[in-house]
Amino acid sequence: MNIHEYQAKQLFSNFSIPVPQGGVATTPEQAEHVVQNLPGAAWVVKAQIHAGARGKAGGVKVARTPQEASAYAQDMLGKQLVTHQTDAAGLPVNSVWVEEASAIKSEFYLSLLVDRDSEQLIFIASAAGGMDIEAVAAETPEKIVHVKVHPAAGLQPYHCRQVAAALGLSQKEQQSQLQTIMSGVYNLFLAKDCSQIEINPLIETADGKLVALDAKINFDDNAVPLHPEIAAMRDASQEDAKEAEAKQFDLNYITLGGNIGCMVNGAGLAMATMDMVKLKGGAPANFLDVGGGTNKEKVKEAFKLILSDGTVKAVLVNIFGGIVKCDVIAAGILAAVQEMHLSIPVVVRLEGTNVELGLSMLSDSGLGLHTAEDLNSAAEQAVKLAEAV
Known about the structure:
By secondary structure, this protein is of the alpha+beta class. It has 13 helices and 18 strands.
């Protein structure tokens, strides 16, 4: 789960990570009001979307007057912002963050994430921070330092000294500031079950202060239910509409670019099903895992999600009836097909508990459903039927 910059900066402040003064606005009038209550002679208006590279796409503007801030907000709000990290449609700008402009002396990069290989947390830092950190990673990776922190020992002063040395921070005052920031990032990461925290850029101001000029936080989806205050920050408008709808029914759905809709129970089986579709020359339209404990209603909603994409030419259902019985799945399929007056071909492969009953329900329905004995033939049928539509 992602959150907006302004939400991340609120969390940063709670954990003693310095950020510029600012406020969020959802109207041009609010943006002007925020500026009137901020210090300084210039202010930055930032479009709030769940994607980076906003500056290069016109989503970050410097205003010299409250009226100019209002005008920039007017230009951004209610629009779709397209960056190289979004798709062609972009993401909607429903709010802007307005903050005091900072006098930047240097820009750094700092992030914390999980290193699954070593089963530790890892700080990634670079003195070459800023908008082009991706280019630094690709072209001059030696400019990036990695400092691992074992969760049993926790963050230690020597970790902070390593990062300070990599950033070229030799003054004790700045080293102390960096330690405060890294401690805040580390404590926030653990307290809120984050999967990534990124500050890009972390700046040194003209008077030697270290400030988080930007803030990005990702959370572990599996832990979000433990943090209702974090769950309340979710902005469904920034997510794929179908994926957001799937979450409401406890379905795991990811939109892909093909024309064969896949409905499977179990992530491993879903991956195998998509691989088989590709092997047979087709392209999956989605990843949809209805879960091991699915029911008739969830199957109906899964069908609705799959078919809400007009590019789907055939549906492949591949279900192993272990926890859920095959006749329950069959009942859900029949209910969905009848309710939606389905006209595209549906191929069903069932295996497991009550498989004979489930298959007989499908074959006796008179709805023209296609059944298969194994995944190989099921995928082959689905690809051929999709090509014929």
